[in-house]
Amino acid sequence: MQLFINKLLSSVLQIIVFTIVPFIWWLVSAKEKESFFSWVGIKKIKSEKRTTVWRMTFFVTIGFMIISIFILYILKGTETATSDFAGMGIKVLPAALIYAFLNTALPEELLFRGFLLKRLENKFGFTIANILQSMLFGIMHGIMFISLIGILKAVLVIVFTASIAWFMGYVNEKKANGSICPSWIIHSLSNTVSSLISMFSII
Question: Which segments constitute the CAAX prenyl protease 2/Lysostaphin resistance protein A-like domain (predicted)?
Fold first, then answer.
């Protein structure tokens, strides 16, 4: 129960921290034009595109899960975000789900695909914007491990996570009319798999 509460409180804090800059930006530049939620992509997907979107979401999710397993193997023996669940089994599933959906996936999607990608796209166009947000996403996930796993493995983490970030940006902007729901689902389910692997000490 304590772990669940900790993850819940941490999630609230994380969401607040990751949305401060986007919210201020929206207040200054877009408050009169669009609601904040719509502006960052928290909106419905148009009905005529849902089948295509969910099909692509499914395949990208599978890809992200496979890459996540590979990254966990690379990081074996290194403390990661899922280490809190290591060997604790099914009893920590509620805490793991809070972590997967709210503690990392939602704030990161709000910041990278909901804010950075959209703002960069307005200035540079989709192609450059998507490359930039995916590179930043990959670097954020890899740079913290350089001292623990070495440069080569850290670069692999950066490349793989950046690749998935590119696909998530593509699905959101080109197939889902700017909704971040697909990437949030992809990200959350991948985190859930990583948590389950840690919970049952599979790797």
Answer: 95-193
